[in-house]
Design a protein that fits this description.
The complex is a heterodimer of chains A (about 350) and B (about 200).
Chain A (H helix, E strand, L loop, with lengths): L7 H7 L3 E4 L5 E4 L17 H4 E5 L6 H6 L5 E5 L6 E8 L6 E6 L4 H7 L13 H36 L10 H14 L3 E9 L1 H8 L1 H18 L5 E4 L4 E7 L4 H16 L2 E3 L2 E3 L2 E8 L8 H17 L5 E3 L2 H10 L2 H8 L1
Parallel strand pairs in A: 12-13
Antiparallel strand pairs in A: 1-2, 1-6, 3-4, 4-5, 5-6, 7-9, 7-12, 8-9, 10-11
Helix pairs in contact in A: 7-8, 8-9
Chain B lengths: L2 H15 L1 H11 L14 H15 L3 H14 L4 H8 L5 H6 L4 H8 L7 E6 L4 E7 L5 H16 L2 E10 L2 E10 L17
Antiparallel strand pairs in B: 1-2, 2-4, 3-4
The chains are: A alpha+beta (about 350), B alpha+beta (about 200).
Pfam family, one (chain A): GGDEF
Organism (chain A): Parasulfitobacter algicola
Protein name (chain A): GGDEF domain-containing protein
Chain lengths: ~350, ~200
Amino acid sequence: MQIPTSLIPTFNKLLPMHLSLSGNGEILHTGPTLEKLNICTNICGQNFLDLFTVSRPRNIKTIDALFASNGRNLHLHLRNDETVKLKGVIIPDADDDGGLINLSFGIGVIKAVTTFGLTSADFAPNDLTIEMLYLIEAKSAAMDESRKLNRRLQSARIVAEEKAFTDGLTGLKNRRAMDDLLKQLIDKGIPFALMHLDLDYFKAVNDTLGHAAGDHVLNRVAKILSEETRDSDTVARVGGDEFVVILPKNPPIEKIELFANRIIKRLQQPIPFKGDFCHVSVSAGTTISNFYTKPDVDQMLLDADLALYASKHKGRAAHTLYTGDLRKNETAGSETEASHQKIA
Amino acid sequence: MHGLINCALERFVRDTYGSPIWADVIRASNIEIDTFEAMLSYKNNITFQILTALSQTLEKPPGEVLEDIGMYLVSHSNNEALRRLMRFSGVTFEDFLYSLDDLHDRARLAVPDLTLPDLELLEEVGGQFELLVRANMPGIGFVLMGVLRAMADDYGALVFLEHKGNVANCEKLSISLLENSFSEGREFHLGRAVGE
C-alpha cells in the first residue's frame, strides 16, 4: 500500500510508528519514531518479517498469515533486539495489495523512552503516553513519601512500645510488660518460676531520708536484680517497692533458693546515700508453673504473694517457696490482708 | 491543609535559611508541631500561623516570601521530582501555560486528597495572558507567580509577571510572554535516568 505523498505528513504526525507494506511484505514507508529504534540504517526496502518477529499469535510466520491476522492484536519484537517488545495491528488495503501496520511500545514504553531518548514529539499529539509517564512518576513520588512515613511511624511505634513497657525510674520492665510476658509463657506452655519480692523497711527510708533516698534504693535494688539474673530472665518493678522476677525454662528449686539468698544477702548491706546509710532488706516468695495442672497468671501471682508474706512472718529477709499448706493457713487465718498491711 | 503544603513550607525554610531559622519560626508561630509529614493532614490555621511568623522572622512582606516559596518549589535541586512533573505539561513554556487549567486535576491524579487552586488562563493579544487563581488560600497567587517565574527559566522563556490583586478569593496574574526560547533553558528527558 503506497501512501500518497500529500498524506505522508498526516501519517507521520498521527501515526509516528506506522509502516506501509507492499503485498510481498516489503516496507515502503515508516513513521519517524521507528527510525529511532536502531533497527537498521535503511528500513525502507527491507522485508517486514526480516526486521520484526511476531511472537503472538505464534503461527504468523509468513506475510500472507500476517495480512490474514487483519485487525487482531499482535505482539512483536525486533529481530536485532528481542528486549524491544512492541504491540501492533495490521490492516490490509481493501483495493490495493499490501497494507498498513501501526505499532506501539505497550507497557515497555518506560524502558523505550530511556533507551531511545524519545521526546513528546515522538508520540502523536493525542497519545496518552506522556500522561501515563507523568502519572507513573507522580504516583511513585507519592508512594515514596508514604513509604517514608510508614517507616517513621514504625520506628515511633517501637519506641512508644518500649516506653509503655518500661518503668521510668529504674529502667526495669513494668507491670504491663510482666502481665504480657506471663501470658505469653503460659500460652506457649513454657514452664517458669515466678518470684515476688518486697522491700522491708522501705517506708522508713522514705520517711527519714526523703524520697530521693528512696529512689536511690530502688535503683540499687534494680541494679542488683539485673546483675544476679540471666539475659533470659525478666525483672519488673510492679509497685512502689515491689519487684517480680520471672525465671523461664523451669530452673531447679535449689537454684531458685540460691538466687533468692544471694539477693537477700546483697541487700542486707547498707546502701550509702549522701553521707547517710539506707537500711533495707528484702522478703521474697516464689511459685513455679509446674505446681499447677493449668497455670493461671492471677492464681500464680496470688500464691507468690502468699509465699512472700510467709517470709515477712518469718521475720523478713527470707525466701519462701509456695506450698499448698500456705493456702490452708491462709483460709484458716483469713486475716492475711490485714496482717500484710501491718507487716509491710 | 494537606501535609504536602506544610512540608513544602518546612523544606523551603530549612533548605533556604537553615534549621535554626525554622526553629525560630516554629517558636514564633505558637504551634506544637516542629516537623510535618507530607502524607498527613493538618488544621488550616497552622499554615497561616507559620506564614505570618515566617514573614516576620525574615522581615520580608508576605507576598515576597510566598513568591520565593513558589520559585523554590520547582527550582531547588531537592525538588527535581516536582520540576519534572511540571515539565510533563508541555514542550514549550506556552504549552505549559495552556496546561495550567489542568493543574488542579493533574495534582488530584497523583494525590487524590490534595486540593490545588482552580486556574483559568485568559489569552489576550501578542503573547499577553491573564491567569485567574481561585482558591480559599489568600496569597496563593504569589506562590504561583514564583512557580511561573522558575518554570519560565526552566524552559528558557522570557516573561514579565505581575500580581494584579485579589478580588473575592480570585487572584489575578498578568503574564507577558516576550520570547518562548530566549535562552537554553534546562534539559528535560521523558525517561528518568536510572537511580534518580
